[in-house]
Specification:
Layout (H helix, E strand, L loop, with lengths): L1 H12 L46 E5 L6 E6 L5 H4 L3 H8 L3 E6 L3 H11 L13 H12 L5 H5 L3 H8 L9 H11 L3 E6 L1 H9 L3 H13 L1 H16 L3 H7 L9 H21 L1 H6 L2 E6 L9 H7 L3 E4 L2
Parallel strand pairs: 2-5, 3-4, 3-5
Antiparallel strand pairs: 1-2, 1-6
Helix pairs in contact: 4-9, 7-10, 11-12, 13-15
Length: 317
């Protein structure tokens, strides 16, 4: 049971960058309990935007500089579908030939415990303080797919409940952990670019009404969440990072300020942090760096930042 819970905690923070929903035009009134009447329907919209982001046509990139052993940056998606976790030959080769394995955050028990303490209320507060019975039961029903008892759901913070709901409800190992286990088995040194606590803080530091807007959008549109996950998997398998980028802005609330700010914190700000923190291993060379695929493309993506820092960038797969 502890191993299962540990893996579920890890699922909460891998691929934050794949959030698909948008916030509200108004703040929720938390002086009363929220009800199904506070739900809104998320609808897809057509877009005339056809801008192709730089570095959006590959998942595996060779990063090199004269006089140093090359390293590789690989874009992941945080799911456990065998079509994705069965590694393509170029990815498997690059991983097995690397002495250092780098991922967004190392899955240590200490980090998982720290994240768990962030995820759950410990002061007597419960979700039922904010949700009426119908909406709470609706939330608990979705989370029961993740083997969470109602007692655990009742003390989850809204951002944590939202985040868990945005993953497929299965018990198998996501791609990031598959890569991690392979690296460990071959004796590679392992490094995390962030901590789980840092990743959780992206959400825990949000205003409470924004956290509940996220939760309600997900609970009230859960079928769409599952459809979007399948679409993202398809785009990933096609190595269509541009499609993945656009998937997040094809909903009617995508221009709301709360989600523009969240997108900045989830992607743009973390792209800079990751590119800065991977400098030491890139200088050492021989590293395989696995980060969420949406951190790779675009002018402000990790690959563009590395190119601007003088590294030669080569698409491999």
């Amino acid at each position: 049971m502890m191993k299962y819970r540990h893996n579920k905690l890890l699922l909460l923070v891998t691929s934050i960058a794949l959030v698909l929903f948008s916030g509200s035009l108004f703040a929720l009134d938390l002086t009363r309990k929220l009800t199904n009447a506070d739900c809104r329907v998320i609808k897809e919209i057509s877009s005339d935007t056809n801008v192709v982001a730089k570095f959006s046509d590959a998942l595996l990139w060779k990063v090199s500089k004269e006089g140093r052993q090359p390293s590789y940056v690989f874009g992941t998606i945080h799911v456990s579908d065998p079509m994705i976790t069965n590694l393509p030959e170029p990815v498997e080769t690059a991983l097995k030939n690397s002495d250092i394995f780098v991922m967004e955050a190392l899955p240590t028990p200490e980090e998982a415990l720290s994240l768990a303490q962030m995820m759950f209320y410990a002061d007597g507060t419960t979700l039922k303080d904010y949700l009426d019975d119908d909406l709470f039961n609706r939330t608990a029903k979705v989370l029961s797919n993740f083997q969470l008892p109602i007692e655990a759901v009742s003390v989850m913070r809204p951002w944590a409940a939202f985040l868990l709901m945005n993953y497929p409800a299965d018990n198998t190992m996501p791609l990031d952990l598959v890569l991690f286990e392979i690296a460990m088995s071959q004796g590679a040194r392992t490094i995390g670019l962030e901590t789980l606590s840092e990743q959780g803080a992206v959400f825990s530091e949000m205003a409470l009404d924004d956290q509940f807007r996220l939760l309600l959008d997900t609970v009230c549109n859960y079928d769409l969440v599952m459809q979007d996950i399948e679409e993202m998997k398809r785009l990933y398998l096609e190595k269509d990072l541009n499609g993945l980028l656009n998937a997040g802005i094809q909903h009617i609330y995508a221009d709301e300020q709360v989600y523009k700010e969240l997108n900045k914190r989830l992607l743009t700000d973390r792209n800079k942090i990751m590119a800065d923190r991977m400098q030491a291993v890139l200088q050492e060379g021989g590293a395989f760096i696995a980060i969420g695929a949406l951190h790779l493309p675009g002018d402000k993506g990790v690959i563009a930042r590395l190119s601007q820092q003088g590294y030669k960038i080569t698409a491999i797969y």
